[in-house]
Write a sequence for this structure.
């Protein structure tokens, strides 16, 4: 059991999308296939270093930033941080690049303290944008809904719905919503801190994510595009352990947090 009860802060900041595009160009990212969420991840790292809010949530259209450029003046970002806004702003002043520092609207930069300990059995509404994938422990094969054979490698990441459906076979009745809710329940079972009272899928899509690879030796970075499920879940949870739940908020749920996944937003039920 973790004993992590240090202060946690909900941070809100607004980033200029034009400056995000400039940052992407500076980092030599393929902008046509790089979405806003990954640019925000890069921006937070440049502004705040190791103290960057994480996990975070981007309240914006996830399409490639070149398609949305000037659609909104600012991109709203929420995140959990170990520091309050005034300390984070002081950290950002150490950023040597004025283009990066000026991408944030500092007049609207704000934070609020999260409760250090929530009462056990407290019910809370939650909102979670997640990437529900599973990593296969061994190689295997199954069949899809059309009866076609599908194979997977040891360690391969699969959409949680496809993994469940292929293993169960075409005669099983498995729907996306139940598969994703079961995935979420498993996350809580493994991590502890809370149990799901009710949950449902609010939004689903398959998104293309561009990931930078290591330098090819001449300073240039290449990129590869992967496709992953992008799912928003809403529901009600019940706190079972205050310290473990605090740790869950800090670390987020699931993989690909660099793309804005995993932030568990909560409110009174």
């Amino acid at each position: 059991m973790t004993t992590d009860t240090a202060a946690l802060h909900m941070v809100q900041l607004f980033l200029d999308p034009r400056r995000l595009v400039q940052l992407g160009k500076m980092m030599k990212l393929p902008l046509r296939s790089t979405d806003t969420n990954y640019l925000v991840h890069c921006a937070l790292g440049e502004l705040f270093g190791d103290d960057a809010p994480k996990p975070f949530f981007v309240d914006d259209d996830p399409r490639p930033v070149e398609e949305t450029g000037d659609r909104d003046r600012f991109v709203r970002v929420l995140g959990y941080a170990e520091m309050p806004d005034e300390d984070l702003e002081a950290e950002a002043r150490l950023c040597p690049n004025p283009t990066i520092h000026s991408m944030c609207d500092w007049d609207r930069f704000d934070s609020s303290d999260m409760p250090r300990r929530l009462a056990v059995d407290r019910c809370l509404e939650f909102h979670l944008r997640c990437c529900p994938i599973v990593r296969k422990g061994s190689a295997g094969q199954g069949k899809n809904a059309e009866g076609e054979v599908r194979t997977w490698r040891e360690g391969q990441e699969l959409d949680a719905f496809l993994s469940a459906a292929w293993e169960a076979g075409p005669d099983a009745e498995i729907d996306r919503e139940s598969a994703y809710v079961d995935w979420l329940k498993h996350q809580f079972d493994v991590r502890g801190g809370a149990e799901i009272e009710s949950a449902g899928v609010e939004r689903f899509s398959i998104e293309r994510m561009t990931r930078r690879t290591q330098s090819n030796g001449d300073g240039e970075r290449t990129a590869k595009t992967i496709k992953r499920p992008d799912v928003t879940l809403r529901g009600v949870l019940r706190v079972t352990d205050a310290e473990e739940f605090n740790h869950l908020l800090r670390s987020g749920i699931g993989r690909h947090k660099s793309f804005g996944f995993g932030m568990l937003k909560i409110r009174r039920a």
Q: What stands out?
A: The first strand starts at residue 9 and ends at 15. The helical segments are 17-26, 36-48, 65-68, 85-92, 98-101, 160-168, 176-191, 242-251.
